[in-house]
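Query form — protein 3-oxoacyl-[acyl-carrier-protein] synthase

QUESTION: What is the three-dimensional structure of this chain?
INPUT:
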Amino acid sequence: MSRFEPCEEFYRSMRVVTDRKQKRASNCGKVTAIAVKPAKQVEEKRRTNTKQRRVVVTGMGVVTPLGHEPDVFYNNLLNGISGISEIENFDCAGYPTRIAGEIKSFSTDGWVAPKLSKRMDKFMLYMLTAGKKALANGGITEEVLNELDKTKCGVLIGSAMGGMKVFNDAIEALRVSYKKMNPFCVPFATTNMGSAMLAMDLGWMGPNYSISTACATSNFCILNAANHIIRGEADIMLCGGSDAAIIPIGLGGFVACRALSQRNNDPTKASRPWDSERDGFVMGEGSGVLLLEELEHAKKRGANIYAEFLGGSFTCDAYHMTEPHPEGMGVALCIEKALMESGVAREDVNYVNAHATSTLSGDVKEYQALISCFGQNPKLRVNSTKSMIGHLLGASGAVEAIAAIQAIRTGWVHPNINLENPDTSVDANVLVGSKMEKIDVKVALSNSFGFGGHNSSILFGRYEQ
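ANSWER: The structure tokens for 3-oxoacyl-[acyl-carrier-protein] synthase are given below.
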């Protein structure tokens, strides 16, 4: 026997190992069957029946250029008050655009710990404040909060831009030395941290993340939050969006895109969706948060139900980074899918809160898509909240969803201000005029679209037992 050949003892040990493997393999099917069957039975017993789960809106929170309470905000909209003014937060004399929907007065007192208020980016402060205001508006007191199953409570609030100022300040500090950088610059710049911090504060252990799809962010978050409830993964969700990009790098970036209005001498007239003299959108800032809840859960705690979430949809233009598809295909498809997924008849939709940002191509393409879907409905009324508060980027969809819900609640829809000479491509009879209008809103559609071709449509209706 060669000295490199294994000895007899080695062969005996290998035979033992091989025999064990063969025995294990021959029995593995039986073992698996015994182990899996009871587990499957347990899982089936625990699985929630999701077919009948309905989602309702039980709370709303806002931080906007027109007020920080849902009723104050909506009353200002109904009265046609503009929140657009000259930027005061920094010197923008050298910019071709010097106006925005800037929040002039804001306090986190009673909502966010002072230590965090000094460190966080404004987008997070707006988000935390709006989120907690939504809880208060929804009757979630400290006592109710303590009784909730925290594992079935989630937070899904996104941002298009994230903590731009925190990140920009870190870059400036880095020019001196990395030692000068804020140790919180990374976590407080990321878009997910607002949802995370709010969940930590509340102790909510359910679904928690953020979605960032540019200006369609809020609608993506709202629909996904509703789906978590429908699937039984949560009973209650805070959802929406927040952005605070009115800073030099934010303003400069959109100026470089040539996307902004330059009507600096008349700020309140600058945002003018569908008007023939529109020259670009106006930046805004703030946050909107909805409290969504499973119907039976809401009824059990005696919650005030503002509206019912009926469904929604997403599509992608797959066409251009910033321009909508020239035929509005992605938008029309999104609306059609939202109707199909929610089971809502097109004739039941009689109010649309449009994305309409006051850009030359976007306004018309959305209008054409709406007419292709609802053109046979003579009672359809369409408006744009952005005419008064500007474009809140990732927060716009949530704030506009709240406007739609308020329309359902009150029976009044706000005007389109600055619509003085409607574009020749639109029928002014479909658009709400310069004064608020009384409408019995049966189903409201809220649209949001974002750079990258992201389209989103969500539907709300009156809650009916």
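ADDITIONAL NOTE: DSSP finds 14 helices and 14 strands in the chain.
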